[in-house]
Amino acid sequence: MPDAKLTARGFYPEIIEAGIAVAEGENIVHTFSSYVKPSAFPKLTERCKRFLKIEQKQVDEGLAFPELVCLLAELSQKENQTVVTWGNMDMKVLRRNCEEAGLTFPLKGQFIDLSMEYKTFFGDRNQTGLWKAVQEYGKEGTGKHHRALDDALTTYHIYNLVEKDKEYMKKSKPPTIGDLVDFSKLLNRMA
User: Fold this and answer.
1) How do strand 110-113 and strand 82-85 relate by DSSP bridges?
2) What are phi and psi of 109, to 5 degrees?
3) Is residue 27 part of a domain?
4) pTM of the entire structure?
């Protein structure tokens, strides 16, 4: 959380790493990973570097934000695509960064906040973190936590698991009274 002095001066979070996994059906057809040079707040805080385990040099050598927007626009050609994220912050930050840079938001299609879908599907009261959710499925996350591409691949993996569970739930028929009560035992007791 930024301190009050930074907020008062117009601080907003900038994208410093992008990770993208493009899938068609159940196959990943393209991945992309890059650091992104922050322009409004180019110097990373010590807390940020420690938390993300990155160095200033990595973002300094990263992609310029307008280049990232162009890449996202190229990948977002189809109107009927689905953009899946874990939480809504990625899209909020991307929108804000586009506004600040005077660029058009590059993504189109349906947007799914998988953390909310997961919460609703499993009836959780609170949102579950990405890596906790994958562990709840008895799986491991891909790569390292808080690395953009690894988180994107882990999100894709959980998306497939949740979709399979939803499909299974649609197919299963509600139990009949005969499924719930063994009438032969009941009849034997009455005889």
Assistant:
1) parallel
2) 115, -165
3) yes
4) 0.79
- Give the residue among 152, 154, 131, 114 at the shortest CA–CA distance from 18: 152
- For residue 117, the domain's CATH number is 3.30.420.10
Total structural domains within the chain: 1
Does 97 reside within a domain?
A: yes
111, two tokens: 């947007």
**Which are the contacts of 146, defined by CB distance < 8 A and separation ≥ 6?**
51, 52, 53
Domain extent for 58: 4-159
**In the structure encoding, which two tokens stand for residue 120, read together?**
């609703």
**Cα dist from 137 to 25, 100, 190, whole Å:** 21, 39, 45
Q: Is residue 141 part of a domain?
A: yes
- The C-alpha R_g of the chain, in whole angstroms, comes to 22
Task: Provide the sign of the torsion angle of the four alpha carbons 104, 107, 112, 114, taken in this order.
Answer: negative
d(CA 54, CA 44): 9
- The backbone torsions φ and ψ at residue 108, rounded to the nearest 5 degrees and listed phi first, read -140, 165
How far is the C-alpha of 108 from the C-alpha of 103, rounded, in Å?
A: 14
pLDDT tens for each residue of 16-56: 999 999 999 889 999 999 999 999 999 999 999 999 999 99
